[in-house]
Specification:
Strand content: under 5%
Structural class: mainly alpha
Largest sheet: none
Number of domains: 2
Radius of gyration: 57 Å
Shape: rod-shaped
Number of helices: 4
Helix content: over 70%
Oligomer: single chain
């Protein structure tokens, strides 16, 4: 009878409330640990998402920076190319004008150097003087016109020995008076020379 009572006590101890509470506590700890692990995973995922978002924003800003810089530089390059094209065109035009001016000046120079008053025939002195003065005036007008045209471009200033309007007027009047009185002066000088040699 004592053995039966001992087995009954052992069975009762195995089914005691303290044993049940211990099993429930372990299960709660496991669930808590699982929840903590899941929370850490979610935190890592959120940090990864935030990192990718910041990276995407930085790439977007860099892309926009490139687009803005591209637009600005394209405008500068386009304006510069057009400006250089205009400059080259004007330089070619001025070079052409300079070549034409040089050709004209060289022809006038050669023509004036060939005119020798000492070789003028006395019988045609009036015509010789009139033609010479007409040629001189025409060449001077050509020079003034060409020099003024060149003076408006890059080469302005290198032909600085231009006459003033007052000087031009005086020189023209002097030439005209000289041309009108030259035959009289020559005839008077010739008559004086004949009178002195008699």
């Amino acid at each position: 009878m004592s053995a039966t009572r001992y087995q009954h006590v052992n069975i009762a101890n195995a089914d005691s409330p303290s044993s049940t509470r211990g099993g429930a506590g372990d299960k709660y700890e496991q669930q808590l640990q699982a929840a903590q692990t899941q929370l850490e995973k979610l935190q890592l995922q959120r940090e990864e998402i935030e990192r990718k978002r910041l990276e995407a924003e930085e790439l977007t800003q860099q892309r926009q920076f490139f687009i803005d810089g591209q637009i600005e530089l394209l405008a500068k390059l386009d304006n510069s190319v057009q400006a250089i094209d205009r400059e080259l065109f004007e330089m070619r035009q001025e070079q052409k004008e300079m070549e034409e001016a040089r050709k004209t000046f060289a022809n006038h120079l050669q023509s004036l150097q060939a005119m020798d008053p000492a070789k003028w025939k006395k019988t045609k002195i009036r015509d010789e003087v009139a033609n010479a003065l007409e040629t001189l005036e025409r060449y001077e007008n050509d020079y003034e016109d060409i020099a003024a045209n060149i003076g408006q471009g890059r080469a302005r200033g290198f032909l600085t020995h231009r006459s003033s309007p007052e000087g031009e007027s005086f020189a023209k009047t002097l030439r005209q008076g000289f041309a009108f009185n030259l035959p009289v002066i020559i005839l008077g000088s010739f008559a004086l020379l004949v009178w002195l040699t008699r």
